[in-house]
Automatic annotation (TrEMBL):
Cross-referenced InterPro entries: Acyl_CoA_acyltransferase (IPR016181)
Start and end residues of each stretch annotated as Disordered: 1-34
MF (Gene Ontology): transferase activity
Protein's recorded name: Putative acetyltransferase rhodnius prolixus
Gene3D superfamilies, sorted: 3.40.630.30
Entry annotated with the keyword Acyltransferase: no
Lineage: superkingdom: Eukaryota
Biased composition (Basic and acidic residues): 22-34
Keywords: Transferase
Length: 207
């Protein structure tokens, strides 16, 4: 995992922020006759970003095998550093979030707040060739970064694709109540849609 600290890449001003990248429908798991509506968009608002951090802390860190096996959530320093990394990734304006829509088009909210409920999210960011992983002190997050470095060392992905920048992500998560409804796949499709819009590579192909 690179640190997402690229100073050369900026989201094109021609791509509105935030943008809604995808809308989809899925039958309710308990009542298949009921169709539920969702949308995937940029995670732009500060309250949404903080809700995503909470979602990732409460759900992703419990479910992701490596984070769970290293008990990252109980390692205070690793938890703090991981949350700092996530917060920094929002500055790239590429992180995605999935919301559920009510019948009137408004968003389902977190009980007792006006903040939309986090159905799922993908901590997407742009990594630049030559970037190094963030320096970490926590044992769990440091070991995770080392493992990711080891995997990445097996191939020069930038050279393979002939690019200097790549779209990466540091975690994709779906609320357990919404699993089995295709939410994760739709987030990945939205990620592809977003990537093609903000990428110079695809613009070159289009031209």
């Amino acid at each position: 995992m690179a640190n997402g600290d690229s100073t050369e890449w900026k989201r094109p001003s021609s791509v509105p922020y935030p943008s809604i990248w995808r809308r989809f429908e899925s039958p309710d798991k308990k009542d298949p006759q009921k169709i539920r509506k969702f949308r995937v968009q940029d995670a732009a608002e500060k309250d949404v970003q903080e809700a995503i951090i909470k979602h990732m802390t409460d759900i992703f860190l419990e479910d992701e095998p490596t984070c769970n096996s290293l008990n990252l959530k109980s390692d205070a320093e690793s938890l703090r550093e991981t949350q700092e990394i996530w917060r920094h990734l929002f500055t790239h304006q590429c992180a995605l979030v999935c919301f559920e829509e009510n019948d009137d088009g408004t968003l389902v909210t977190i009980p007792g707040t006006d903040t939309p409920y986090i159905v799922g999210c993908n901590m997407t960011f742009v990594s630049h060739k030559g970037e190094k992983n963030p320096k970490t002190k926590g044992d769990a997050i440091s070991r995770i970064c080392e493992a990711m470095d080891y995997v990445a060392s097996s191939i020069d992905t930038y050279a393979h694709y002939g690019v200097n920048e790549l779209l990466y992500a540091f975690g994709l998560s779906v609320d357990p109540a919404y699993r089995g409804m295709g939410v994760g796949m739709e987030i990945l499709k939205a990620r592809n849609d977003m990537g093609m819009k903000v990428s110079d590579y695809y613009k070159g192909l289009a031209n």
